[in-house]
């Protein structure tokens, strides 16, 4: 029974990866998966594989990807305003591109999409959402999606989370993200609605209020007695950890099972310190997704890679200076081409995400080794520093800082070019030579060529503060003050 159900799902998804599924088929898919999970109390080891699609051997994968690239390029060259001159200029027939031609196609810069987003929308597309990126690290970008794309996205997101054991009908999910992050929020809200899980959107409010909500006892039919899933940004999770421990909260006050964190670099120090507040058994779901290339996303593995489903899109890791594929182990910019049928409205070919990763050093030996991979996210290129020898990325600095207890979460810091290395500034709880030495040691241990270190006691003293998503804070009505314990968010937001 289990195998049969998953065989059906896999079959249906094989169809889905070739062309769009109608709404009824998506509903049927979810209903089948829910029934299976209900009957067997979980999913077998091939559950996640059913969502990701069958493993392809190298030559089949390349053939599938080239076919999909051609299909997307043909649409882009005929039906958008941006791409026709690109192909005409190169004298390329998009329907006949070979791999060598793909490499000749110029990258699509972020600025082009930001300056004229509608030039990337197909003529005749049934646009339903013109979403805006949150724009923490630059001017926001607009990206259009059709209702059908959104429908497919939420259905597959729900299915994926169910089969990965990340979300079930009895879960209570607290969503603490910017209300402007519409695409991610819609996706989680849609997944919850699809599975029958309870969604509690909170936004980025005072951490004390979110903590109150996470600790609250619930009496709702068919649901867990306390919130079980938290979806947020790493920097906001850091605020919760700091504020929670300061207020005397302990793991016994919560019943969180999973924390889904993304949109920024997630450090080992943050996970460890979050476990002190929410408990050692809390699982962390990390990954990589961005509005512009949604729903094409990276899945983390146990060896620290990000893996990408090849039938959903193409990833390339390119040397930021030369634009040729980065050498194994070298830092590169992640370039993404999302494929149909998931992307049929805003078309992007070789989109330069400006997110830095490393090209994998050798063939992966992890359980997702059949899927193309990069290293985990290192941070935005614009926020990294290039020096003679190599790069210092936000991850290098953040991993070192958030591992040190004297640095409050989230790490408030800045770093800049200092000749053959970088100068770092960071907010600490208390200053002193021992703390300074511990931080310097940590930075050097993470390969940061340290040429200066400045400790400050308040974030206002930072000269060049690193942007954090938790600072997209949303004000609430004054009546809902954290000091009045009985006032919940529902009262404040009503
Ligand atoms: Zn891996």
Automatic annotation (TrEMBL):
Gene3D superfamilies: N-terminal domain of ligase-like. InterPro entries: AMP-dep_synth/lig_dom, ANL_N_sf. Residues 126-336 form the AMP-dependent synthetase/ligase domain. It comes from the Bacteria. PANTHER family: BLR5969 PROTEIN. This is AMP-dependent synthetase/ligase domain-containing protein. It comes from uncultured Thermomicrobiales bacterium.
């Amino acid at each position: 029974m289990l195998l049969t159900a998953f065989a059906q799902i896999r079959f249906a998804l094989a169809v889905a990866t070739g062309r769009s599924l109608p709404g009824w088929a998506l509903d049927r898919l979810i209903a089948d998966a829910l029934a299976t999970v209900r009957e067997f109390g979980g999913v077998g080891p091939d559950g996640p594989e059913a969502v990701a699609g069958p493993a392809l051997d190298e030559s089949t994968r390349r053939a599938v990807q080239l076919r999909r690239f051609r299909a997307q390029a043909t649409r882009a060259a005929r039906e958008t305003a941006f791409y026709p001159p690109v192909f005409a200029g190169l004298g390329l027939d998009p329907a006949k591109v070979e791999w060598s031609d793909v490499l000749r196609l110029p990258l699509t810069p972020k600025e082009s999409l930001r300056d004229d987003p509608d030039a990337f929308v197909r003529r005749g597309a049934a646009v339903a959402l013109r979403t805006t990126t949150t724009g923490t690290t630059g001017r926001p970008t607009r990206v259009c999606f059709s209702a059908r794309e959104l429908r497919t996205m939420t259905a597959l997101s729900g299915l994926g989370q169910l089969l990965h054991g990340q979300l079930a009908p009895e879960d209570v999910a607290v969503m603490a993200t910017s209300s402007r992050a519409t695409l991610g929020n819609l996706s989680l809200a849609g997944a919850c609605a699809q599975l029958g899980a309870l969604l509690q959107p909170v936004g980025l409010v005072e951490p004390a209020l979110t903590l109150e909500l996470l600790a609250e006892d619930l009496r709702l039919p068919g649901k867990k007695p306390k919130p079980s899933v938290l979806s947020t940004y790493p920097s906001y999770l850091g605020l919760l950890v700091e504020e929670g421990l300061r207020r005397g909260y302990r793991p016994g006050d919560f019943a969180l099972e999973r924390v889904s964190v993304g949109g920024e670099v997630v450090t080992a120090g943050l996970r460890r310190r979050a476990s002190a507040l929410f408990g050692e058994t809390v699982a962390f779901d990390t990954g990589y997704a961005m509005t512009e290339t949604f729903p094409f996303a990276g899945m983390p593995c146990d060896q620290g890679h990000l893996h990408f489903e090849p039938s959903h899109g193409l990833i390339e890791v390119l040397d930021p200076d030369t634009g040729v594929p980065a050498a194994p182990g070298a830092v590169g910019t992640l370039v993404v081409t999302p494929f149909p049928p998931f992307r049929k409205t805003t078309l992007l070919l070789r989109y330069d995400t400006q997110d830095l990763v490393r090209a994998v050093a050798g063939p992966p030996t992890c359980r997702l080794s059949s899927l193309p991979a990069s290293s985990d996210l290192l941070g935005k290129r614009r926020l990294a520093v290039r020096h003679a020898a190599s790069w210092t990325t936000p991850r290098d600095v953040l991993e070192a800082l958030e591992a040190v207890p004297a640095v409050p979460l989230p790490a408030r810091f800045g770093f800049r070019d200092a000749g053959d290395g970088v100068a770092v500034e960071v907010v600490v709880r208390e200053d002193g030579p021992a703390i300074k030495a511990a931080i310097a040691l940590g930075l050097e241990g993470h390969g940061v060529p340290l040429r200066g270190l400045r400790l400050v006691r308040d974030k206002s003293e930072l000269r060049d503060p690193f942007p954090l998503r938790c600072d997209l804070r949303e004000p609430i009505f004054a009546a809902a003050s954290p000091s009045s314990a009985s006032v919940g968010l529902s009262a404040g937001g009503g």
